[in-house]
Amino acid sequence: MANSAPTWILVFEWAARAVLLLLFALSIWSIAIIIDRRRALKQVEQEAGSDQIRAWISKGEFQSLSSWSSSGSGLKAKLVQTALSAPKNATSVEYAVKGYLTEQRIALSKGLPVLATLGSNAPFIGLFGTVLGIIQAFGALANQQSAMASVMGAISEALIATAVGLFVAIPAVVAYNYFSQRFKTLLAECETIRDTYLSRLPEA
How does DSSP assign 10-47, residue by residue? Predict the structure, then answer.
């Protein structure tokens, strides 16, 4: 009799390997998003602190505030530019800044839903690959022509799928929580700057 494994065992073998390839592709995607979000965070954080900005506003030092914001390119600098360029009444400033913050919230959250999805689902993809590998291993074990070495190899590949799934999920979850919190904090600081500026303006 031929020593080749049954066709259905080969199908499960290739399916398990396809799952591994998928996980590696997802890990590259996750790393690319993490690098991109890190660059975005670094860009928006390169500026004066919220306390200094609110101090300028509270003291009415709008010339200093304008000079600083015109030379900046971060989140808070552009926020101040938006507020200063709006008509000098509370309603206009509020709507202008609200629109700006909404745009920035969308831009900063780019890619974060993907990280959240990978963090919650990559372990299940790895588990699926493990199940396929285990089925393949037991199928090979049931086949009298299969060597024990091939069975152990199949089990090893199956466990690797679970490990890779966790490797993809854990960094994705950590990065999602970190960036979500940092961006949320930055936007909250921008809102306090807006409210401080609005307190210096008359109602429309």
Answer: HHHHHHHHHHHHHHHHHHHHHHHHHHHHHHHHHHHHSS
Helix 75-85 with 7-45: angle, nearest 10 deg: 60
Q: Do the domain assignments include residue 142? A: yes
Burial string for 116-154 (b: 16+ CB within 10 Å, else e) reads: bebbeebbebbbbbbbbbbbbbebbeebeebeeebbebb
Range of the domain at 32: 24-41+61-198
pTM of the model: 0.80
pLDDT category of residue 25 using cuts at 50, 70 and 90 = very high
| Total number of domains in the chain | 1
Q: Which two tokens stand for residue 195?
A: 């409210």
**Closest among 100, 73, 74 to 86, alpha carbons compared:** 100
Please indicate, yes or no, if residue 12 is contained in any of the structural domains.
Answer: no
Under 8 Å between Cβ of 155 and 38: no
Burial class (CB in 10 A: 0-12, 13-18, 19+), 106: exposed
Instruction: Report if residue 148 sits inside a domain.
Output: yes
Give me the residue label for tokens 């202008």.
96
In a domain, 66, yes or no: yes
Residue 129 amino acid letter: G
Cβ–Cβ contacts within 10 Å for residue 25, how many?
11
pLDDT digits (tens, 9 = 90+) for 36-78: 999 988 888 766 677 888 888 888 888 888 888 888 778 888 8
